[in-house]
Each structure stands twice: as C-alpha cells, then as structure tokens.
Amino acid sequence: MEKKIKLIITDLDRTLLRTDKSISNYSLDIIRRCKEQGIYIAIATARSEQAAANYIKLINPDIVISNGGALAKCKDEVIYKCMLSARISDSLIKDCVMSSNIGEITVETESGYYSNSEELNKHGEDYTHAKYNNYSKSLNCMTYKITVEVFESKAAEELASKYPQCSFLTYVGENWCRFAHREATKINTINEIVKYLNISLEEVAAFGDDINDLGMIKHCGQGIAVSNAIKEILECASHITGSNDEDGVAAFISEKFLEKDEN
Fold first, then answer.
1. Which one, 12, 86, 106, 147, has least CB within 10 Å?
2. Alpha carbon distance 173, 156 (integer Å)
C-alpha cells in the first residue's frame, strides 16, 4: 500500500511551467490546496534562486532546491549546500576559455551570476541579473555550477574526464553542458530534506522531465513523468501524467493526492 504523500517536489521548466514559461491559474490553485491540506511543496530546478525568483514568488513553496541540487532552502534556512572549490572552478573556467569548441560560459556563485557573452539579455527576463565577465582574472570563489555552450560534444567530454570531481550533465536537445560538484544532485538534496521534515522518502512524490530529474524520479515514493519527458524519465517513472502544456502536474496532484471536497 502506497504511503500518503506529505511532500510534493516538482521541476519547473518543461514540467510545471508551460512551454511559454507560464504557470496556469489552475496549477497555482492546486498548489494552494495542497498547502491547505498540509502537503509540503518544493520546487527543484536547475535555475538559480535569482533566475527562479518570479516563480518562487508566485508558487511560494515551502522549500526551494536550486542550481540542480547544489542548494536547498526552507525559506531562509539552508538545508543543503554543495559547491565546487575555488581551485577547481578557476581551473575549469580557464580550460573552457582556452577551448575553441566552447562559446558562452556562465558561472553561478554566491555573489552573482556571470557570463562572457556581451548579449546578456538574450536568455530572457529571468536572467537580467547576469553580469559580464571575460574571465581574464580568476573568480577565486566557490561555484554552484559552470554551464558552457559547446560546439563539439567531444570538447565537453574531454573536460569531464579531466575533472572527475565534477558531475557532467548534457541538457537534452541543447548544446549546453553543466559542471557541478558530484554530490550536487536533486536526490542527494531530497535525502537531506526528508530528514529535515522528519518524513520518509516513500512519502515524497516527484515530478520531472529531464535527465537531471532521474534520481528523484527513481528513488522517491512516487516518481511521475510528464508525457513530454525524455525517454529515460518515461521508462523509470512509476506514473506518467499529461504534458506540461496540459498542466499534467496539477492534474495528477488533484486526482491522486488531494482530499476531495465533499460540498
């Protein structure tokens, strides 16, 4: 018998968010009803807190997992933090700058988000906080993640083999790769969150669509894929719901986890 779900975790992009990056009023209403019924809500995103700020304000989650699992907070309290050292970060950035097969380099730190692209607005309004940096000088600080635009996959794979301390992730359908600490994963963060909330992993439901959601889809009590998810997620999910554009996350929550209104 499945345990009652006490924590719902959802990815943002291409999962809770529609393709146009909006959240429907229906989804927001379902999230509100979860809170009213005592179910914790968490978002788990590859975005930083700043890049997800507008959605955090709308959703008002109990917990925010950002930077792909490198940081988790319950309001202002840090539950989990896992960063690349300054030495590894500076060395990796230097190698990326020197590679002719790597274009834009973005770096997420505690003090800011940096990019070597002079077109800082091209990624949309969620990234207006970006600061230009050509990385001619070492940042000399720890980083949450380093994300690079790759022209040839071999270049990124060579970097990944040079830095075994890093987890290496290729975003499906995109020419972007992410480097982070090996322990900075969504499922590692979730393991700390369930301790913090004094619940079990079996009492957690997770929704996702992409490869960085694989761990939480596999190991949470219920791992639910939106129908637009990649093959690897669809194959390991315990359930499949409608697509992000069909508000699949909210529809599944409404049907499976919310107590019905008897009125």
1. 86
2. 15
* pTM for this prediction: 0.93
Alpha helices in the chain (DSSP H): 25-36, 53-59, 86-98, 153-162, 186-197, 214-219, 231-236, 248-256
* DSSP letters spanning 225-247: EETTS-HHHHHH-SEEE--GGGT
Alpha-carbon span 5 to 162, nearest angstrom:
41
Angle between helical axes of 25-36 and 248-256 (0-180°, round to 10): 30
94-120 pLDDT, tens digit per residue, is 999 999 999 999 999 999 999 999 887
Q: How far apart are CA 33 and CA 109, in angstroms?
A: 35
CA atoms within 13 A on the CB side of 189: 33
d(CA 119, CA 205): 39
Average pLDDT over all residues of the chain: 94
- List CB contacts of 24: < 8 A, sequence separation 6 or more: 18, 247, 250
pLDDT computed for residue 223 by the predictor: 98
Query: How far apart are alpha carbons 188 and 193 in whole angstroms?
Result: 9
Domains of the chain plus CATH, in order, are 7-81+184-256 (3.40.50.1000), 86-181 (3.30.1240.10)
Q: How far apart are CA 65 and CA 45, in angstroms?
A: 6
Give the position of tokens 């894929």.
Answer: 225
- Can you tell me the distance from the alpha carbon of 78 to that of 94, in angstroms, rounded to the nearest whole number? 30
Q: HSE on the CB side for 72, CA within 13 Å?
A: 27
